[in-house]
Amino acid sequence: MNVVRRSAAALAAVTTVLGVAVPAVAAPPSPSIPDGLYGTSDPKWDGVWRQSLALLAQDTVGVKPAAKAVDWLAGQQCANGSFAAFRAEAARACDAKVTVDTNSTAAAVQALAALGGHDTATGKAVTWLKSVQNKDGGWGYAPGGASDANSTSVVIGALTAVGEKPGEVTKGGRSPYDALLKLALPCDGDGAGAFAYQPDKKGKLAANADATAAAVVGALGKGLAGNAVKPTDTTLTCKDATTPDQAAHNGAAYLVKALAKDKHLTSTLPGAKPQPDYGNTADAVLALATAGHGDKAADAMRWLEANSKAWAQQGGPAAYAQLILAANAETFDVHDFGGQDLVKLLDATGPKPASPTPSDSKKADKADTKDDSSGVSVWWIVGVGLVGGIGVGFLISGRKKKEQP
């Protein structure tokens, strides 16, 4: 999910839900970065999100995060269980001025559940998420906002992370899967098999690659770290989506076609020329691997390996985390990704991990066993800041409602 769109989503949520006018003025100076937080950019819109992605990525590749990094994330929680994107004064109780959102809350749940030892916090967060579920079964970015594919999908991941069955979490008799099915495009016409972010004002659905990548993972009941499975031999064809699983595979078919021409997805910002969307390309790789079609994402992964260095440097911890997750999904070496050690680069954006990176251990092992020729393969795992139109992928929410593949 795109960095710029995450910012727009947060601003839109404030305006729409709270009725607050958002003045078009220059942003205030960035606050000092709290000890324990990953990254150096203003965390106002994405602090909890980027922290959650960073911790998930570290956990996935066997790095034990620093205790203060985990404590920072846990300390951002409000008493009612929700999380805001960032609370500069975490010691002060949340009040009406603190704008909480479903995405930050669901991402934090996934990270804290993966790390373990935070059952009380994740339980309170999930209770809050259930309390703001919409009548169509889905969630919007802000409580009370219209359901969208990205927000609904990240909440599904949170439910799964704590052992809930998303299909049984209902409001008005509808589950989050029902909400996603309503956002799935039919198999005829433009964007066949894709997901829309939200219907437009006339109720029409438009294919959105960002939303599709998120919804493929969500419809399969998985979270931000995905769950890569062995590639299947099933030919990807679009069929009537009467089940979440079929909708997910329809979405995967759409992503394969969207990636086919250039090996990457493309994003167009107002007034700018189309350009590669690195983050959403990584999300598409993750989605295809989770759907059992990772073999069809290998070219996109190779493209990211060759072209994503500058983007990742600008995107910081969230970008490095996304690349780690996507690379692991495709069994690319996260310690030698286009000549870069993604894990060390991610680690360097925050407090020193509590355990050495796996790459350090491997170097020591190789020094002791020089004749060992066995290869090592590692396995798998949505900020604000206008980065010249460069996307940060599964960073949420919206997100232009018409995204070009």
Structure in words:
This protein has 405 residues and is mainly alpha-helical. The protein has one domain (3-18, 37-357): Glycosyltransferase. Helix content is 43%, strand content 1%. The protein is built from 15 helices and two strands. The chain has helices at 3-18, 47-60, 67-74, 102-115, 119-131, 149-161, 176-182, 209-219, 244-260, 278-290, 298-307, 309-315, 317-329, 342-347, 358-368, and strands spanning 265-267, 275-277. Strands 1-2 form a two-stranded antiparallel sheet.
What is the ordering of alpha helices and beta strands? HHHHHHHHHEEHHHHHH
What is the level 1 CATH name? Mainly Alpha
Question: Which value, in Å, is the CA radius of gyration?
Answer: 20 Å
Q: Summarize the main sheet.
A: 2 strands, antiparallel
> What share of residues is helical?
40-55%
Tally of individual domains:
1
Q: Beta-strand level of the residues, as a percent range? A: under 5%
Instruction: Write down the overall geometry.
Output: globular
Region (Disordered): 348-372
Biased composition (Basic and acidic residues): 360-372
Signal peptide: 1-26
InterPro entries: Prenyltrans (IPR001330), Terpenoid_cyclase/PrenylTrfase (IPR008930)
